[in-house]
Records
---
Amino acid sequence: MKLNELLKAIQPVEVAGSTDIEITGVNIDSRLVEGGHLFMAMRGTQTDGHTYIPSAITKGAVAILCEEMPEQKEADITYILVKDCEDAVGKIATTFYGNPTSKLELVGVTGTNGKTTIATLLYNVFRYFGYKVGLISTVCNYIDDEPVPTDHTTPDPITLNRLLGQMADTGCKYAFMEVSSHSIDQKRISGLRFAGGIFTNLTRDHLDYHKTVENYLKAKKKFFDDMPKNAFSLTNLDDKNGLVMTQNTRSHVYTYSLRSLSDFKGRVLESHFEGMLLDFNNHEVAVQFIGRFNASNLLAVFGAAVLLGKKEEDVLVALSTLHPVAGRFDAVRSSGKGFTAIVDYAHTPDALVNVLNAIHGVLEGKGKVITVVGAGGNRDKGKRPIMAKEAARLSDRVIITSDNPRFEEPQDIINDMLAGLDKDDMQKTLSIVDRREAIKTACMLAQPGDVVLVAGKGHENYQEIKGVKHHFDDKEELKKIMN
């Protein structure tokens, strides 16, 4: 594509050099630059792309987009100065890859908890209806039925637009994606056109990045502020921030709730470890999911599918065929000892409370709950004592252990968690640094009818220690122990 065509997507402050040149690729990583590429020098949280401009030119870049012109410019290189590189990168990427969101219906899901479940279930529902569909999620990206591994909840703008472009080129009619607060704040979704957005809930998370809950809320809200007027915004009335999210949006606002009058109203009629019987808009449906939080997730899926033009009755049939997402309330049964183990990604206080309440809702006091939980290193330290306190409040026994310690000492993280417990809590709490031993101990303590919850890692099949990812899968470990 010609550079002058690409630049129509943005408003440069200054251009030095010819714009009548062919651009064969766009990059924000200088290591990936090849001959004929446009290199965009972004200021990241770890490094500043401006320092890699000479390296990009050496590798063959013919144009440089930057927020600060180099003092010495190379001959035959075109320099484009912009006010906001983050915003420009998204717009240029989507233009280079043929404006993929003009060719498919893209729905974004944002909130603290439930994003992966809702996006994945919408992907499965529309595949059930026979469409080619794309998915961008924490667990895995899919171009119809082809998996594409993922490192981030929302990829960088280049990867994201390349993925969406491939989805459009292979005939996908719909795409569903998780939209993280980081991606909104860093404008990774700049230039994308959404057909709809879904808000799940907002609780404490990512404060290592956002610093305050208010900043975190503002990042989520901006997603709906920027939604086009012909799109829909579907928000959760059961969350106190549900209507805050949509108060300045130009889009059509719809609501869902398990508690109040709303456009999409749900109730839990029955609940057991095999699933639930639900009532959605006065229609009953049996599903293979457990817990009120999952009823809320399914209600969001139901609402979004209806807003995308599907009949309520057809969507309910599709919902009845769905299975839980990997690592989300994933049950493993012990045939020998007669207890149930649950693996769940819950890594925030609110998510942990949701899962434990769901377990109690099924047990109805007829069994004990043993919780294995840790907290990630180099992340929000403030949630550690809160998570330990909630685990102790809602469990009969608690084992505090390692999660992904990253570059922190596991014992330091455990100590931060234990600081949230009082004397009574400590009576029922053990701390075991080795996660494998912690899971083994929980299973040894379990009696027939009990439930062991292993929380925090869910679908992850690794433990990150000192920058190295070691293979570790909670569900795999449970199966080994149970056998």
---
Amino acid sequence: MTLLGIDLGTTSVKAAVYTSDGSRVAAAARRHVTRRPAPGHAEQDPADWWAGLTGVVAELDASGALRDLDGIGVCSQVNTHLVTDVDGVVLHPAITWQDGRCAAVAGTLTERLSEQDRTRVRGGLGTVDASHPAARAAWLAEHRPDVWSRTASLLAPKDWLLAGLTGSAVADPISSIGLVGPDGTHPDWLDLLVPGLRALLPPLADPASVAGSTTGAGGLPAGVPVAVGTMDAWSALLGGGVAAPGDAIDVAGTSEVVAMAAPGPGGTAPGIVTFPEWRGLHVHAGPTQAGGDALTWAAGVLGGTPGDLISLAATAEPGDLLFLPQLAGERAPVWDPALRAHWLGAGFGTGRAELARAVLEGVAHAARHVLGPLETAAGGPAASLAACGGGAHSDLWCQIKADVLDRPLRRTTERDAGVLGAAMLAGLAVGTGTSVPELASRMVRVEREFIPDPAERGRLDDAHGRYLAAQQALGPLFR
């Protein structure tokens, strides 16, 4: 048995082929760029996504890894949207989850909803934010009426990718959180936000069901079943081994996503996203705005690559310097697009190494800010967290996060957990896996555990208090 997982992420298209025990046969990746043509804008060209897909497929095919595939699974970045015409032609650059241009129009949309309907927006957050598809639709209608008049579909990247591979765009309830009513369909109130919005959204199906079969597009062999798939963060939960109540994870990608499975429905906490139950999993999560992205930005400012900056940070002694990573606002748990980043507490002894270490700690403090309300929503503390994503490659950063969170981190062997999770969804879809726990038990492995250093507890507890106080005090200056 071999399964192909594809992850259309914020910075790259990644793909890998796995055997039944989760061993990676071959993998490939192609990067794409985010363009920022105006303040607050963050766009991507779907043509770059397709070029990345064909590139990774060609590389995997050359290795022989695509022979005799049993199934294909896909996942992608979410809260990124693109619009197409009746022929499937992309009409406008994709507006990504990092884009804040729609914040003003989003505020006016929330006012149109009843109190009951507000509780169903974005997993219980209660407001239409700048990344909501209704906000994107309203912005296009107002600022790009020529585009909006020709729009026939409003799609997430995964849905668009499925259309390219199988001929059919299919959405899933997890990626579409806040867009799905109690009956599993798109609710009527979406048309109160933007008239005709429901008709532009693709049909919904279970992430582990078959969307269709490959047509040969993109260089993939024809006739292979493709699972509907889901968002990259949820896929990473599966690939990181979240399979039962109490399981928790830190996904260290472009943003930092902290998530935890609860024993049952009903728990909530301010700023935390509550997903609909899926195959026995009741998951709460909090995505930050900048995780690895903060390190990438700092590397550009301070000089060198992100890897250089991590090496430099390892030479710095732990200190009192703080970094707030809100470079483009913050998502969970405060959901404030106006927040901005800061280094605080610099002195004459502060150099590049100290600034670099503060970035690593600042991202960890953002994750800790999420972990508190997340555990409240899940009904109890996390005994430990799985760790995956690009940021988990660094031993130093994993140890810093374990220290700041005061929880052991169990780093998975497969860092690209979203790719593995997509392959696991394919296994469920084609019947080579029987359940999430069964697949996790044989396909997910832990490579190393990082234990919190008790000697760091006092310093980091104090630092976290100052981090929260600084964020609260500085926020009003930028609103």
---
Amino acid sequence: MTDAHAALMDRMYRPQRRIYDLTRKHYLLGRDETIDALSPPPGAHVLEICCGTGRNLIRASRLYPQARFYGMDISAVMLDEAREQAARRKSGAPIVFAEGDATDFDAQALFGVPRFERIFISYALSMIPAWRDALAHAFDLLTPEGELHVVDFGDQAGLPLWFRIALARWLARFHVQPRRNLANDFAAQAQARGLAHRHDALYRGYAFHEVAAPRLG
């Protein structure tokens, strides 16, 4: 991605940063279920790619205070909000935030951590133009025993056509484009790395939750 995309995100989120979490909680479904599924072992390094306001990381840090948490985002505006919220809401464990491009950021340079036991991406691939590159980079940052969790808009296959059309038009106003091939691309990248893959269609396909790990029960 380019500096132009970072500038676009800053322009869009600057007037929204204070109300983002309040307005998004009604349609960014499946985020809490994804966080609940992380279950990082003690001492694990947990990274959220495109962490936004830090809402998800704060919740995760309270659930898993024995882990270490990191968040990156391309928007400096959202990172400012994330740092403020983490300080104000008193996260369960310290969270380190850094600015970067999801497709090629240097985790060692940003965080002093080269690989992560858990990585999750929540409703971000649908906003990243080079989303497949971002997904591949996330896979590359896993430890040998690491897990990657992604939740994002699904294909809405079980929902009425009128709803799918209306949702697509609404999301386009915020530069969001559901990735209809997310499940297939995720599975292919997991398989190429010898990882097991689980696909869950949530709320009649409104959202997809994808998980890749060395082993899945």
---
Amino acid sequence: MLTELQKRAAQAIVNIFETSDPQGDYGKVTVMKGDPGHLTYGRSQTTLTSGNLYLLIKAYCEAPDADFAATLEHYLLRLLRKDTTLDNDATLRAVLTKAGDDPIMQDVQDQFFDRVYWEPSVIAAGNLGIQTALGIAVVYDSIVHGSWRAMRDKTLTDYGTVKQLGEQNWIAQYIGVRRQWLATNKMALLRKTVYRMDALFELAQVGNWNLVLPFYVRGVYVDHGALMPILPRTSAQGDERVLFLQTPNLRGEDVKEVQEALLSKGYQIKVDSVFGEKTESVVKQFQGRAKLKMDGIVGPATRAALGLL
């Protein structure tokens, strides 16, 4: 099971492929000549013709207090119909770009892309016996980019199963198969994306299967700071740190306070003032029961639910 930091690292790789930003560009709107997806949008560049852009914008419009919901609601029917004339709608593109700065849009995108791309990738990887962070990142990239099943099946046919080859060897063969498919594809846009396989292969060559930070992807430096944005603090609450799993583990009285709060609520947890994997796991359990985002990060919302604000 990946840590939250490994998940963010895997997603950062694909974010860089899609938007050149490890955290993704939530407001990025792209229309590329010859792209069958037509209008694409957001952190993981979901497309108009897949139908996913409609689902994403619908989810945003249904979210309470979404700043641009009233405007975007007028486009829902055309998005549902996959109306490709929207490619040239300057008003829609401008609103989508502005909406990317809305924290509600960012939260909707995080949940949407986890549900549509990340979680299926983890399941698909697990079904094959792929468990490493880099291996899952390769599957995730293909599911976001497209044609995962076809390339998976060709690799299985040509080279054998993960069990037969071992995960690292199978992933290397898969990258080669997919790179060849991209390089010889009839679509010029896909031929230009062989860099994705080259970047993933470089990580495999140096043996960074656990996606240990820091590393480079296409010249972009990926470290802890690139994955975990500095969140605003409120002096009224004593400038509490945002707590999450990292290396080295966070330590201190604030960690102890969270552990004690979890213990008082009946969770089995060692109060040792160290935010390790066990503490992250218990935090996620609590967040699930409290109907919070299960990311293992102790910020204002989780503190409030624990009675610490």
